[in-house]
Every structure is written in structure tokens, then in C-alpha cells.
Amino acid sequence: MQECLDTGWVSSVGAYVDRFERIVADAVGARYAVATVNGTSALHIALMLAGVDRDDEVPMSTLTFIAPANAIRYVGAWPVFIDADPEFWQMDPSRLADFLDRGCERRNGALVNRTTGRRVRAIMPVHVLGHPVDMDSVLELARRHALPVIEDATESLGARYHDRAVGHLGDVACFSFNGNKLITTGGGGMLVTDNEEFARRARYLTTQAKDDPIEYEHHEVGYNYRLTNVLAAMGVAQMEQLDEFVEAKRRIAACYADALRDVPGITTMKEAPWADSAFWMYTVLVDEAQFGMDSRALLRALGGHGIQSRPLWQPMHRSPAHAGSPPAHCPVADGLNRDALSLPCSVGLRESEQQVVIARIRALAAR
Ligand SMILES: *Cc1c(COP(=O)(O)O)cnc(C)c1O
């Protein structure tokens, strides 16, 4: 970062932007990466690359942070909310199949939602909490229906699906380097792909679609979405620590799992047979009847002892911000929203601090 300041290359052109893009592309095994100001803007551009247009529909995970649903609205399209699977809490491929195989039909070469009459244009699985979606099933559906797959991998850098990196499973993927993510640049994002034309167009659209840099000629409405060199320098330094960070997350997760597994009413987070989770967040389920209090009461009890915990997001099919989207029945996500609580798990969490959290939960359970 000092070098950026000393040389004056502080803005969206500079050697560190290229280096950061290279290091992230290499980490996931992708051919191209394009840095952006944040993960949400990367999702916005990815939808444009996939050809998603006004009044199209995009099935996506209902149990997620709101950004991908918002990005779908930015291009004038509509999210179709797919329920989570009860075991690993990711987009349930069997629910996705219900929608695509039974809820849609082919009309004049396009896949159309039977209920709304709108065209389905892409699939957007969100790998939540550091854990991969069951992608082979999603990719098989995508292939069968000829739909591009946009991975929202913003919470799952460093995770693997079988022997493949999350973010290198669909046609294009997006990462975030917000302050709460595993790797941060304060704010930042990245779009990764093997598709050369996608990469070229992403670079173009994120730099105001500038065609002639001398005469300032533009043939399209573009966006100012490029990351700055200063922040990219931070990203390069952060990426050098990625493996250590993932290791720390996995160590914290294993410690919680060991210590809380036998607590009545607590269900610890699972890792699917296909997954090497990055455990971005460590989340447990609280069964009110067995534990003696519900997740929100536990949140308050921990808070009273200076321990911060958090529920998962309001599922998107319940979000007033997306009330205009097709209504969806997602009982699994509703149950997870009721029962889930995320525990302290930042990479800087000390073992002694984690033991305090564990002891407090065990003491509350004993009561
Ligand atoms: C963090 C996050 C984003 C977007 O990231 P920003 O960099 O904050 O724009 C997108 N999707 C999900 C699921 C996220 O958790």
C-alpha cells in the first residue's frame, strides 16, 4: 500500500490490481479474474454477462444475505427463491429440480415459468457460511435446461467441492472482500471465469464501457465498479494468508463441534461428504424444547455476558424488500431462521476466548 502511495498509482489502474486478480484466479484455478468495488457489483455484472435481462427470472437460494437478490433486481429480473436442504443448509437441488422440471416448460426454445410466464435465464446458487452447495446436481439441472450458472461464492473463498475450488464450478463466480469476509480489502469484490469473452466484457462494463480512452467514446452505459490499486495491494497481502485463515476457521469449527456435540438441544454444523468447508461462519441450531430456551433467548443470554452471537438472515422469501417476487414455500429456511445462531469465530479468536463461549453455552444448557 505504501508503494502505491509513493508511486502515485492509487486508483483503479496499477500493478496490484493485476496481481490481485492473478492471485485470486490462481487460488480457484480459473483463467480470468476481474476485480470490482465489492461483491454485489461483481454479481450485478455476472448477471449481465449471463444475459439476464428485464423480466427474466433467476432461481437462487432463499437462505442468504440479501445481496444476490438485490443484484437480480438491478438488471430488472426477478429472483425465484429455492429452499435450503435441512442437513447442510444450502440451496436444495431437489427443490430446484421441482421448479425447473415441473414449474417450467419450453416455449419457442426458451424455458418459461408456467405460473408467471416469465423466462428463466440463469441459476444462482449461493454457497452460504463457507460451505459449498451440492453443485453436481445443480450443474446437471443447468445442463439439462441450458442455463448458465452464476456462483455467489462471496462467503466461501477457500472452500472445496470434491477436488474443485468453490468459485470454479459454474460459468462465472463472484467473491467479496468486505470487512466481514475471510479475506478483506475493506471493501472489494472479484468476478472469476474461464470464459475469455466474459472477462473482457466484465472489464469493459466495470470501467464505464470506455471504447476510446483518448476521445472518451462509449457505446454502452457502463459502471464505475473497478477496485483501486491501494485496496488491491491490501488484497494481495491478505491472499498470502488465505491458507492460514482457512486453517484457523477449520480449527475453530472442529473445537466447537467437539465441545458442543453432546449438549442436548444443540445441533452442530455439518460438513457434507463432498465438502471441504471454509467454515466462514460457525452456526449451531438451538432446539427450544430440548435446550430450554430458543435461539433468540440464547442470543440475549450470551449477550448479557459480553458474547456476541447472531441469527442467520431473514430468508429472502420473507423479505419485504423482495415481496414482489414470486411467492415461495420454504419451510426448511423458515426453521433455520428460527433455530440458527452463529457463534464468535473470527480468525483472530483465541482458544481461551472460545473456551469462555463454550463454557457459557454448556452452563446455560445445564440450567
Ligand atoms: C457479503 C455477501 C455479498 C456481497 O458482498 P459485498 O462485497 O458486501 O457487496 C453477496 N452475497 C453474499 C451471500 C454475501 O454474504
Explained architecture:
The chain is of the alpha+beta class. It has two domains: 2-239, 3-Layer(aba) Sandwich (Aspartate Aminotransferase, domain 2); 242-366, Aspartate Aminotransferase, domain 1 (Alpha-Beta Complex), CATH 3.90.1150.10. The chain has 13 helices and 16 strands. The strands form six sheets. It has a four-stranded mixed beta sheet with strand order 1-10-9-6, with helices on both faces. Strand 4 and strand 5 form a beta hairpin. The longest helix is centred in the last third of the chain and has 19 residues, at 242-260. The radius of gyration is 21 Å and the shape is globular. The model has no long low-confidence stretch (mean pLDDT 96). The structure holds pyridoxal-5'-phosphate (PLP). Residues 38-40, 64-65, 67-68, 126, 152, 154-155, 176, 178, 189 line the site of pyridoxal-5'-phosphate. Pyridoxal-5'-phosphate (PLP) binds at residues 38-40, 64-65, 67-68, 126, 152, 154-155, 176, 178, 189.
Report the uncertain regions.
Answer: none
The percent range for helix content is 25-40%
Task: Write the CATH architecture name of the largest domain.
Answer: 3-Layer(aba) Sandwich
Q: Report the span from N to C terminus.
A: 51 Å
Would you tell me the structural class of the helices and strands? alpha+beta
Number of domains: 2
**CATH-defined topology of the largest domain:** Aspartate Aminotransferase, domain 2
- Please tell me how large the radius of gyration is: 21 Å
The CATH H-level homologous superfamily of the largest domain: Type I PLP-dependent aspartate aminotransferase-like (Major domain)
Helices, by number, come to 13
Mean pLDDT, all residues: 96
CATH class of the largest domain: Alpha Beta
The major beta sheet can be summarized as:
4 strands, mixed
Walk across the major sheet and give the strand order.
Answer: 1-10-9-6
Bound molecules: pyridoxal-5'-phosphate
Silhouette: globular
Strand portion: 15-25%
Q: What is the H/E string?
A: HHEHEHEHEEHEEEEEHEEHHEEEHHHEH
Would you count the extended β strands for me? 16
